UniProtKB/TrEMBL annotation:
CDD domains: PBP2_CrgA_like. It holds the Pfam family HTH_1. Gene3D superfamilies: 3.40.190.290, Winged helix-like DNA-binding domain superfamily/Winged helix DNA-binding domain (1.10.10.10). Residues 10-59 form the HTH lysR-type domain. This is LysR family transcriptional regulator. Belongs to the LysR transcriptional regulatory family. Keywords: DNA-binding, Transcription, Transcription regulation.
Length: 293
């Protein structure tokens, strides 16, 4: 089925003669259209489109391919129109397990948009970092951050999460600013999921075991503790970006910030996945395709 990936985008570009116009027609981003077309050309082993700064036109191979696939797409559209609309409306309840500030501040609003497009669908989000049993707990998929260890599950990456270290200015005025990761041993650190922090500068990797007076697995609690001056925090950059922008927190150890890990959609390998689950997963993957910390 992956041989059909990019075909719809190709037809839209061929008919509108532009990536931006095709993106508007399809209701997606220009970068998504460009990415899908590049994958299609790579898969076919030929160039379908001739791109200039002002115009996009079909190559000879592209013209031949277009004449063939447009008939296939027309037939597919006609087949879809023959299906009873009630059968393809999303209904029922989508149950999602989520953990972390990224899920709270970014994934939840994205799923709210998804439900707006499907009035018959309900969503239940359980914000809990515990390991879930997808069958017993009735969970359709989970949003998780970091390294994944259960090989029996399928994981699709949503975003990469580079790290940022921060502290309140009044804490730094009182305790001094660390110049290298080893200096953290003299500081009070605000700990989230673990007390071993990994830093990297060029090819040098340094791992530091830290300690402090505040520990929480909730990103908002870590943020607030940091703003109160309880110590230095080290988490994905999106946790602190707003506080840094308005001056409530100050970046530290910037040359040493690590690449971090990723946030993932995790779900059980099931032969028959409900349509609502499959569509929600695909929606989130596409929604965050161009997202940056």
């Amino acid at each position: 089925m992956d041989s059909f990936e990019g075909v719809v985008e190709f037809i839209a570009v061929a008919e509108t003669r532009g990536f931006s116009a095709a993106a508007r027609q399809l209701g997606c981003s220009t970068s998504h259209v460009s990415r899908q077309l590049a994958r299609l050309e790579e898969r076919l082993g030929c160039v379908l489109l001739s791109r200039t700064t002002r115009l996009v036109s079909l190559t000879d191979s592209g013209e031949v391919y277009y004449q063939q696939v447009k008939e296939l797409l027309t037939g597919l559209q006609q087949a879809n129109e023959m299906v009873n609309l009630q059968q393809i409306n999303l209904t029922g309840t989508l149950r999602v397990s989520a953990a972390g500030g990224f899920a709270e501040h970014y994934v939840a609003p994205a799923l709210m948009r998804f439900t707006e497009a499907h009035p018959g669908l309900s969503i239940e989000m359980d914000f809990n970092s515990r390991m879930v049993n997808f069958v017993e707990d009735g969970i359709d998929f989970a949003i998780r951050y970091g390294e994944l260890t259960d090989s029996s599950l399928i994981a699709r990456k949503l975003v990469n999460r580079p790290m940022m270290a921060v502290a309140a200015s009044h804490y730094l005025a009182r305790c001094g600013e660390p110049e290298q990761p080893g200096d953290l041993k003299k500081h009070s650190c605000i700990i989230s999921n673990n007390d071993t922090w990994k830093f990297q500068r060029n090819d040098v990797v340094e791992t530091i075991k830290v300690k402090g007076r505040w520990r929480s697995n909730n990103a908002n609690a870590v943020l607030q503790a940091c703003e109160q001056g309880l110590g230095i925090a080290y988490m994905p950059a999106s946790t602190f970006s707003a506080a840094v922008d308005c001056g409530r927190l100050q970046p530290v150890l910037k040359p040493w910030w690590g690449k971090g890990a990723g946030s993932w959609i995790v779900y059980q390998n099931r032969r028959f996945m409900p349509l609502r689950t499959r569509m929600a997963i695909d929606y989130l993957v596409d929604y965050f395709a161009d997202w940056r910390e």
